[in-house]
Amino acid sequence: MVASSAMRGEAMAIVARIAYKLDRPYDMFVAVNMMAEEHFELNVEQRKLLITAYRIIFSAKRRALRIISVMEQQEDNSNHIEYIAFYREVLEDDMQATCMSTLDIVENHLLPFCRDAENATLYNKMIGDTCWFLAMLKKVEDKEPFVEKALVAYKTASKKAEILSPADPMRLSVDLTKTAFYHDIMNRPERAYALAKQALDKARPVLVLLNEESYKESTEYVRLMEENLKMWCTTMGKDPEDILSFKELQASSSSSTGYPCPVVPPSVLALAPDTFTSPGDWGHDVHEGLSASEIRHRKKAAQMKKGRMG
């Protein structure tokens, strides 16, 4: 029965790969969920498919919510505002439904059949990220259960990740998100700072032991954590110079590894809301939506370009 489940799961993984190549993200999303429902341990490639599918779907939904919020703020016509507000609620309901189905998939179809440390780390982080997002969509009085569940999930993910190298990209992704959660949601900047600095101190000495792909991904997480720490330093009265800069890290590491400057991780789970103030492992996707300032900047740039061409 186990072999049969694994075979059916791999069949759905093949469908997911095909859907990805055909640029059919929703079909891919459905396929990876059907894969998960076969109740078997995902291998590395199947896990990457899961991450990619969820990243694409959540990024698109989050981007839509962000843009419609900007539209609602900038619209002058009261009739239009009413319709925009109505459709924003539709999008929010859709996002909440997707989040709840995500929790069902992870808690009931993935975690119970998981023995691999990386898988367990990822699944608990997915629970944390999803609950964080749900908390941001809820009214103030309804946030607390999701905040508490997210914190438990992040702590569990950290515990599961202890078996991994301190520089492992999966472990660093948890460190990055958990510390941002402590700072932004729990309002505990000192705790966030201490955990992030501890994670960096443990990761840096062993970064050079990673293969090239993991090195690129891990050093990107390191850079994002450094940015968070420097930002937090300004509000906590700490000296930003205490934090080894990413450029210094790159200079000290590249000579022995020959690896190029890291790029954005190719398969990073991005479930977190756009309203977070600290960049997490969703930091690059969060800027895909158009904020009010970005819209003004683009309009100004287009006007200047048009003036030059005229």
Automatic annotation (TrEMBL):
Please list the residue ranges annotated as the 14-3-3 domain. 8-248
The source's domain of life comes to Eukaryota
Q: Which InterPro entries match?
A: 14-3-3, 14-3-3_dom_sf, 14-3-3_domain
- Gene3D superfamilies for the chain: 14-3-3 domain
Q: Which SUPFAM superfamilies would you find in this protein's record? A: 14-3-3 protein (SSF48445)
User: Pfam families, per this entry?
Assistant: 14-3-3
* Family designation: Belongs to the 14-3-3 family.
**Know the name of this protein?**
14-3-3 domain-containing protein
**Record organism:** Urochloa decumbens
